Amino acid sequence: MLAALDALLAQPVLLLLTLATGAGIGIGVERLVEGQRRAERRAKWRGRKFGAPRRDRAPVSAADVAVDQLKLVMDADFTARPLLNRSEARVFRELDRMVTLRNPEWQVMAQVSVGEFIACADAAAHRCINSKRVDLLLMDDACAARHAVEYQGAGHHQGTAAARDAIKKEALRKAGIGYHEIVAGQTTPAEMKRLVERLVPERETESGYSAPAAAKNIR
User: Which of 126, 136, 187, 219 is deepest in the core (most CB within 10 A)?
Assistant: First the structure.
């Protein structure tokens, strides 16, 4: 080993060539390793951005979905519950009485899904309102939705209620359906009566126009 080193030192040109060759090999190896690392990083980044390759899944038929849902329902317990709470029920009964007295052809519906009486060609937009409901809905003699009435009880504006109401208001406005509110502790019976008189056309009878009876307090 020492003899070989002495021989190289005795020939400077050969020494330089040997050092240059070693340096070139070292640089090449370093670049190769760095290239592999970059390739691994790019592959990892692509995996995060685009996700892992999806495996082809066998299509699930509607019948299979229905069978699975039936199994879940058969294994679960169900109980009936009130459609409206006490405050909502009082408002519903009073509003229904006022509307019926003014025009028996009109009806008041409770807890109606917005997607049942508003249509939209934009599927994504329709999904935004499809599962939302209005507390009370005034329906005319042609079974068409005319006015939505929301009962604002205690704690109604908690959480995301304001955002949900804004979505419903905009959809109702574009569909040409009125939006009105009855506020607990603020809306008086006289105000509620005037609201009904403004929204519902009075039905003419042989003896003239029917007049609504005295309203009860709304709480």
Answer: 136
Long-range contacts, 155-160 (Cβ 8 Å, 24+): none
What φ, ψ does residue 155 adopt, rounded to 5°? 75, 10
pLDDT above 60 (res 13): no
Given a contact cutoff of 8 angstroms between Cβ atoms, the answer to whether 177 and 148 are in contact is yes
Q: Which pLDDT belongs to residue 153?
A: 86
Distance in angstroms (rounded) separating the CA atoms of residues 12 and 18: 10
Extents of the domains making up the chain: 2-50, 86-209
Residue closest to 29 by CA, chosen among 21, 41, 19? 21
Kindly report, residue by residue over 141-190, the tens digit of the pLDDT.
999 999 999 999 876 666 678 888 999 999 999 999 999 999 999 999 99
Containing H/E element for 111? Answer: strand 107-113
